[in-house]
Amino acid sequence: MTGIGQSDPAALLRRGVIALGVLGLAGTVLELVFLRHWGTATALIVWVGILALALGFVALARRPTRRSVLGVRILAAVGLIVSIAGVGFHVVENLTAGPLDRVYAATWDTMPSPEQWWTAITGGVGPAPTLAPGALAEIALALLLATLWRPAA
């Protein structure tokens, strides 16, 4: 094992991206556990994405082959899809909550549609944080970046 100063810069950056991705994944798992994010079938979707990303990081931690790197890229794509779906679910949930919100109940139906969407996306209304599922996208992109220019690839 070589020291950090003796490592190939690409390998060092790859390890750093993997470490940041794993830290992000661990933080996301903790946050979801604290929020008890498992009460409905749609809430369980994120756990599939997390499992896919975790498997990808494990595969990269071993000696990756061309085949495993391709598999990791597919897992990263699954993570991105789950993330995009999560943002969509959260926005729709917030839109649904608009008429019930104490601040917007009297005006929600008269608000222009773009304003309703903006309010739902930015978290002005509803219980679902729309940027939270974006964390999975960031982690998936870290996983994808870690596969680029791999010797095995």
- SS element count, helices: 5
The count of DSSP E runs of length 2 or more, i.e. the number of strands, is 0
- What is the number of domains? 1
Give the biggest sheet.
none
The amount of helix comes to: 55-70%
Low-confidence stretches: none
Strand content: under 5%
Multimer state:
single chain
Rg, nearest Å: 19 Å
Report the mean per-residue pLDDT as an integer.
88
Please tell me about this protein's structure.
The chain has 153 residues and is mostly helical. The chain has one domain (9-147). It is 67% helix and 0% strand. The chain is built from five helices and no strands. Helix 3 (66-97) packs across helix 4 (113-121). It is elongated and about 65 Å long.
Strand and helix layout:
Blueprint: H1 9-34, H2 41-61, H3 66-97, H4 113-121, H5 134-147
Helix pairs in contact: 1-2, 1-5, 2-3, 2-5, 3-4, 3-5
What's the short version?
The protein has 5 helices and no strands. It is mainly α and 153 residues long.
Q: Which features characterize this protein?
A:
153 residues, 5 helices, elongated
